Amino acid sequence: MNLLAIETSTEACSVALVHGEEIVARGELAPRRHAELVLPMADALLAEAGVGRHALDAIAVGRGPGAFTGVRLGVSLAQGMALALDVPVVPVSSLAALALEAPQEEDAAILAAIDARMGEIYAASYRPDGAGGLLALDRERVTTAEALELPVAAHWQVVGTGWATYGEALRGRLTGALRTAGGAHYPQARHVAVLAVREFRAGRAQAPEHALPVYLRDKVALTLAEQGKA
Amino acid sequence: MSARQVELPDEQATGALAQALAAALDGGLVILLHGELGAGKTSFARALLRALGVGERIKSPTYSLVESYRLPGGTAWHLDLYRIADPAELEWLGLDALADPSALVLVEWPERGEGALPPPDLRIRLDYAGGGRRAELEAASPRGARLLERLG
Amino acid sequence: MDTSDFSKPVLGIETSCDETGVALLRWQPDAPGRGLLAHVLYSQIKLHADYGGVVPELASRDHVRKLLPLVREALAQAGLAPADLGGVAYTAGPGLVGALLVGAAAGRALAWALGVPAIGVHHMEGHLLAPLLEDDPPAPPFVALLVSGGHSMLVEVKGIGRYRILGDTLDDAAGEAFDKTAKLMGLPYPGGPALAKLAEQGRPGAFHFSRPMTDRPGLDFSFSGLKTQVLLAWQQSDQSGQTRADVARAFEEAIVDTLVIKCRRALEATGARRLVIAGGVGANRRLRAELAAAGGREGFRTYFPRLAFCTDNGAMIALAGAIRLAHGQHQDERIQVFPRWDLESLPAA
């Protein structure tokens, strides 16, 4: 199958192309420049692999959580492409994609944590499923590092900007020994692609208009009534 | 760091403070404006921009988050972050220019842009006081302290 | 005005503020209906009412939910498939950055996937050209009064991309003044249209407010002081229902008179004999009646696009985009939006 994957939910911008058994990808740490980079990157990958746009079977996208504007950019791009090509969209958790950045060891749980700013993180934990994918151990949530509740595991791998900002607090929340930790990791399109292929084969691709962002932080303004109370 | 308090019983007093501040300005400055809704942050920013010679329309940046104006010595930026939902949003506005030392940067609701704003030189806190307002000016950098000294 | 046709349907997308607008246009300046094939709109006014104003993040979230269903609806109305499109036009600014990015990204990606040209349109150019969607459109040069919640501007239009701003507001836009005044008299957001309706029951002459900046030369506006006058009058009144209507009437008359005076001056200054009215406040009945009457007296013609094309809409974006595409202008694959964008900086076509 041919699948194009987009990930723009954090400071990193990347695009990947699944072409048969192969995955090729391009990416850059480029805050603010995502909108300019995505389509040229996609063109370069398609040209390199000799795949035409109309040969794509699906568009995958990191649907968040992450920076709201970046998440929406990726989802809007995927929606527009998929509508034009009459193919489905496979939305993939950006936290799950991030978790694939950690070493995949079956005896260790993975905590994926993205700095959500305003004193909070987006977090979820996973375990490798032994077949290149992930099993979710809990739900994605937005929380302070101090209030993070984690499932029991003997060993932990922590990955993401949440570690860079709140490493100390997160260390205190782990329910087992810390094996590795990397704060300079971001969700990448190649991992979105890996997870999307599995979702696609499992029949979980969606009509483009149903592939929507996941923000987690949903209270973004106070109503007039709430302002009155404050 | 130095600080001072100014009573602002009416619009004229706000204008006079803005005039004095404009006269004491020497190059760029990052000013954070603190205070509740309706405390007069936008009015003060408008008065300062007018005092600096901005003749064009001074919009409230409540929705656009940021407006910019040409000044004789550089650019003025007026930000209102009240309706921002995610500081990362600021990155999409292309605000690299805020870091230009010759820029005058006025920020309302700066606490909502934490991590995405240049370091402040001056904090101005506006509060209700009787029928009018009170302004507390506090230097947050050597550049801000020198400005307060010039303000006398 | 050279408005060469663009023979293939252009998709127009508008997401700069709180309306999601989509339209399909096979631009033919001489055909009946100008080739408009479909036009759909979703307004977020209800969403923002609880907050007392537009919340940019909520606006962006709503655009992303509504845009694709609206594109599908427009295609169905026109009986077209995406592959039939010849180009895509989206609002690239000015406006709310997050909201603009939704339409720009979806629109640009759609064009990329189809291999057709795309163009980022200036929102205000869309408003300026909207009257070309009507029968008997104005020929340049003309003067346009753009009055909405975000703008109060007089623009001289000599051709596509040949715009000169004659006057602008120094503070609040006319629509903003309507909304703020309605709010201080206790009407719920967005109170402007309700205030105008109330004004119909007001008695003439019960109150009088000044016509700001009409006592000196120039074409700029200033409406924020009017708000203070109204507040004082309202606070000192008996605040009865009739008084509220009387104040509303006097306020509306002050705004309309001011706009009419400045329009007449703008026509005089430019020598143009055609006046186009665009933007949401262009729907105001008193403004329409007064301008038409002034035109009758002084020999200038007024052009009002239909109400649906006065307020934000996708058709005007499809139109401005189609005209520029017809001239070979288009955007490369970098998606760019301009939250602040000078109308006078646009290229001529």
TrEMBL record, chain A:
Location(s) in or outside the cell: Cytoplasm
Organism: Fulvimonas soli
One Pfam family matching this protein: TsaD
Protein name stated in the entry: tRNA threonylcarbamoyladenosine biosynthesis protein TsaB
Gcp-like domain ranges (all copies): 28-221
Claim: Kinase is one of the keywords in the record: no
GO biological process: tRNA threonylcarbamoyladenosine modification
Keywords assigned: Cytoplasm, tRNA processing
Stored InterPro entries: ATPase_NBD (IPR043129), Gcp-like_dom (IPR000905), T6A_TsaB (IPR022496)
GO CC annotations, alphabetized: cytosol
NCBIfam families per the UniProt record, alphabetical: T6A_YeaZ (TIGR03725)
Principal subcellular localization: cytoplasm
UniProt record similarity statement: Belongs to the KAE1 / TsaD family. TsaB subfamily.
Key word tRNA processing present: yes
UniProtKB/TrEMBL annotation, chain B:
Compartment(s): Cytoplasm
Lineage: superkingdom: Bacteria
Family: Belongs to the TsaE family.
Name of the protein: tRNA threonylcarbamoyladenosine biosynthesis protein TsaE
Any GO molecular function: ATP binding
Cellular-component GO terms for this entry: cytoplasm
Keywords (A to Z) from UniProt: ATP-binding, Cytoplasm, Magnesium, Metal-binding, Nucleotide-binding, tRNA processing
Main location, first listed in the record: cytoplasm
UniProt keyword Cytoplasm present: yes
Pfam family, one: TsaE
Alphabetized SUPFAM superfamilies for the sequence: P-loop containing nucleoside triphosphate hydrolases
Cited PANTHER family: TRNA THREONYLCARBAMOYLADENOSINE BIOSYNTHESIS PROTEIN TSAE
InterPro entries: P-loop_NTPase (IPR027417), T6A_TsaE (IPR003442)
GO biological process, one term: tRNA threonylcarbamoyladenosine modification
From TrEMBL, chain C:
Lineage of the organism: Bacteria, Pseudomonadati, Pseudomonadota, Gammaproteobacteria, Lysobacterales
Gene from which this protein is expressed: tsaD
Enzyme Commission code: 2.3.1.234
Family membership: Belongs to the KAE1 / TsaD family.
Gene3D superfamilies given in the database record: 3.30.420.40
Organism: Fulvimonas soli
Domain of life (superkingdom): Bacteria
List of residues binding Fe cation: H123, H127, D312
GO annotation, biological process: tRNA threonylcarbamoyladenosine modification
Protein name per Swiss-Prot or TrEMBL: tRNA N6-adenosine threonylcarbamoyltransferase
GO molecular function: iron ion binding; tRNA N(6)-L-threonylcarbamoyladenine synthase activity
UniProt cross-references to Pfam families, sorted A to Z: TsaD
